[in-house]
């Protein structure tokens, strides 16, 4: 789509608008009957062409970004190298919540939980309401704490459920916390809420039902 054509459409709309303003409507009804469809056609064509051009520009930009990402990834030989590159980027943009989150994910994939926790803590500092950041920050704390819950982890899970009552990771973690604390009915409640979110015949549903059954048997003792 060439820019001169867009300008032509806009010029046509402007010309027709001037004609409408110059000539009184009552004296030139026939003229208006002709001009009105022309104005509408010009507007539609301009919108169509301009919108298509804008969408095409977005598509080209996205494709260019994807190609750049592929080129960068092609030069990376190991996860450690990717971590180093990301850390270098964060030196230039230390307030990038997304960058810290990705760094945390990379560390977590290598079971480097102290580093992951620090990265997620940074991401949480800059974006405290992001759901996935909160989930990963809580999970990294849980890993560092040997699978035991503390008030910080509980607070993160509670905040997650306040923002999204159906947040599955928070429901699962709070269920485990309640079970470990021998609050079996509370654990069952969380697992039942989680069960309602998964396909009934899925493997997850089977595991949740087993957990509920085990908690119920513990509660009856």
Automatic annotation (TrEMBL):
InterPro entries: C-type_cytochrome_biogenesis (IPR051263), TPR-like_helical_dom_sf (IPR011990), TPR_CcmH_CycH (IPR056413), TPR_rpt (IPR019734). SUPFAM superfamilies: TPR-like (SSF48452). Gene3D superfamilies: Tetratricopeptide repeat domain. Residues 85-203 form the Cytochrome c-type biogenesis protein H TPR domain. TPR repeats lie at residues 97-130. Coiled coil: none annotated. One of its GO terms (cellular component) is plasma membrane. Keywords: Membrane, Repeat, TPR repeat, Transmembrane, Transmembrane helix. The chain crosses the membrane at residues 6-25, 32-50. Pfam families: TPR_CcmH_CycH (PF23914). PANTHER family: CYTOCHROME C-TYPE BIOGENESIS PROTEIN CCMH, CYTOCHROME C-TYPE BIOGENESIS PROTEIN CYCH. This is Cytochrome c-type biogenesis protein. It comes from Legionella birminghamensis.
């Amino acid at each position: 789509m060439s820019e001169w054509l867009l300008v032509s459409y806009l010029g046509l709309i402007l010309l027709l608008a001037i004609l409408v303003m110059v000539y009184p409507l009552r004296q030139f009804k026939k003229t208006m009957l002709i001009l009105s469809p022309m104005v509408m056609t010009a507007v539609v064509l301009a919108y169509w062409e301009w919108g298509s051009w804008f969408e095409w520009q977005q598509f080209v930009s996205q494709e260019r970004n994807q190609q750049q990402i592929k080129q960068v990834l092609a030069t990376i030989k190991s996860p450690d190298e990717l971590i180093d590159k990301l850390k270098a980027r964060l030196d230039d943009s230390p307030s990038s919540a997304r960058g810290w989150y990705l760094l945390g994910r990379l560390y977590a994939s290598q079971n480097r939980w102290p580093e992951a926790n620090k990265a997620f803590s940074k991401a949480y500092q800059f974006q405290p309401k992001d759901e996935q950041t909160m989930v990963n920050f809580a999970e990294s704390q849980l890993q560092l704490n040997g699978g035991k819950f503390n008030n910080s982890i509980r607070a993160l899970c509670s905040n997650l459920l306040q923002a999204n009552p159906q947040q599955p990771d928070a429901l699962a973690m709070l269920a485990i916390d309640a079970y470990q604390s021998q609050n079996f009915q509370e654990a069952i409640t969380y697992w039942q809420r989680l069960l309602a979110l998964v396909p009934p015949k899925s493997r997850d549903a089977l595991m949740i039902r087993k957990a509920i059954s085990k908690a119920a048997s513990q509660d009856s003792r």
